[in-house]
Amino acid sequence: MSSSNDASRPASLATLCIHAGQHPDPIHGAVMTPIVLSSTFAQDGPGAHKGFDYSRAGNPTRDALEGCYAALEGAKHAIAFGSGCAATTSLLLLLKSGDHVLVGDDVYGGTFRIFDKVMKQFGIDATFLDMSDPAKVKEALRPSTKLVWMETPSNPMLKIFDIAAIADIAKKHGAWLAVDNTFATPMLQQPLALGATMAVHSVTKYMNGHSDVIGGAIMTSDDALAERLHFIQKSVGAVPSPFDCYMVLRGLKTLAVRMDRHVASARTLATWLEARPQVERVLYPGLTSHKGHALAERQMMGPGGMISFELRGGLGASAAFLKALRIFACAESLGGVESLAEHPAIMTHASLPADARRALGIGDGLLRLSVGLEDEGDLRGDLDRGFAAAKNA
Ligand SMILES: *Cc1c(COP(=O)(O)O)cnc(C)c1O
Question: Taking the model in full, what pTM does it have?
Answer without folding.
Answer: 0.95
